[in-house]
C-alpha cells in the first residue's frame, strides 16, 4: 500500500522559497506566472493491509512529525 | 489556470531526507513504514488561456529551473 502526502503552507503564510522561484522565473522571461507556492510531497510504502487503518496511521504521522500544523496543512491519499 | 508540478528523485538516487524521516518514524514506533521518498510539489498560478501552451511553458520551466533532470523526474498537471 502506498500513501501520497502533500504538505503545504497554509494560506496567508509567507512562502520565501516560492517567492524566490517566482522571481527567478520572471527574470527568465516566464511572464505568465502569477504565483508560486512550494510544498513537500512525501511518498510512503506501507505494509498495512487495511486502507482505513493506514489512513489513520499516516494522519498520526503528519500530526506528530511530517507537518508543522501551526503553519502547514496536509492532504493524504492512500493508493 | 493552475499547474501542479511534482518533482521527485529518480529511482535509484539516494534520498537522505526520506531516509532520515523513515528513521524518525521508526523510532516513534510507526513500524509499518517500508520506504519514504520526499519530493517537491510546486503549485503555480498562470495567466495562460490555452492549456497546451501552458503545459509547454511549464515543461520548459521544469527543464531550465525547477528540476535537476540529472537526478530528478517531474510530472505536470494543468487544471
CATH architecture of chain A: 2-Layer Sandwich
Q: Helical element count of chain A? A: 2
Greatest interface and its participating residue counts = A-B, 32 and 32 residues
The largest sheet of chain A, given as strand count, sense and whether it forms a barrel, is:
3 strands, antiparallel
Strand tally of chain A is: 3
Give me the CATH superfamily of chain A.
Phosphoribosylformylglycinamidine synthase subunit PurS
Rg of chain A is: 16 Å
Query: Which whole number gives the mean pLDDT of chain A?
Result: 96
Strand content of chain A: 35-45%
The CATH topology of chain A, please?
Mth169, Chain: A
For the record, the count of structural domains of chain A works out to 1
Spatial order of strands in the largest sheet of chain A: 2-1-3
Estimated helix fraction of chain A: 25-40%
Instruction: Assign an overall shape of chain A.
Output: elongated
- How far the N terminus sits from the C terminus of chain A, by CA atoms, comes to 6 Å
Poorly predicted regions of chain A are none
Identify the CATH class of chain A. Answer: Alpha Beta
Q: Could you state the order of secondary-structure elements of chain A as H and E? A: EHEHE
